[in-house]
Amino acid sequence: MISLSKFVKESQWTQLVVLLLLLLLFTIGSFPGYLTGKWQWQQLAPVIQLKELKQIRNSGLTLSGWQNVEQTQQEVGEHKWSLQLIKKQDSEAQAIVLLLPQNGPMDKPEVEWTEVNGWGRSRWGKWDVAQYRSAQFIVKQPSATQVEARFFRASTPQTTFGVLQWYALPNGGNPSPLNWFLADQLAQWRKQRVPWVAVSILIPMEPLGQVEKIWPLAESIGETVQAALMKRLL
């Protein structure tokens, strides 16, 4: 298991490298605009998947091997998320899938994980995070893709959840918004955009238990959700 202190240090180095790359891109990209008076961010390319993204918020996802028990729009922080209760076919396993799709060309990922924490506290009165670590899983379809995620235990007075979170992109995913910023900046050079969906999966588990016990289930759901989103975003 990766320690939290080690993960924080690694994340800080990653963020520093990404920020330096963004600064380089900004400098290179803005210099011609400075000379001509045409600024890149005033001419953002459209997000062509916005219609698909709105459908995700309205109706959730169809997930292979899982039955959709209930789906609704849920106020989480300042945004409307899709809240979907799913049940595994031929099993008692259940999970809550929270999805926040990009809502417009200027919309960017930023405070979604904080909003989920606040929603958990307002819904259950308590949301204590423990056993936090980074996680990775591979999506085989529609194309082999690695996803980085946050994985931890969240305890409430009523139940305990294993939580898996990341920003889903057309070609992978990461819990840090900086990865999307860099990918979107690069895409804008080609007059394209990179759509995103914030994913937060809550899996009920034994009270105050070891979250690693449900990792195989969390990994399986994560792969299924990412695969379904990639089919909608590509």
Structural class: alpha+beta
Intertermini distance = 33 Å
Query: How would you spell out the order of helices and strands?
Result: HHEEEHEEEEHEH
Query: Are there runs of 5+ residues with pLDDT below 50, and where?
Result: 1-11, 28-41
Give the C-alpha Rg. 18 Å
Number of helices: 5
Which outline best applies? globular
- Mean pLDDT figure: 87
Please indicate the percent range of residues in DSSP E strands (runs of 2 or more). 25-35%
Would you report the number of β strands? 8
Helix content: 25-40%
Give a topology summary.
Elements: H1 4-36, H2 50-59, E1 66-76, E2 79-88, E3 94-101, H3 112-124, E4 128-139, E5 145-155, E6 160-169, E7 172-174, H4 177-188, E8 197-205, H5 215-233
Antiparallel strand pairs: 1-2, 2-3, 3-8, 4-5, 5-6, 6-7, 6-8
Helix pairs in contact: 1-4
What key attributes describe this structure?
8 strands; about 230 residues; alpha+beta; eight-stranded antiparallel β-sheet; globular; single chain; disordered N terminus
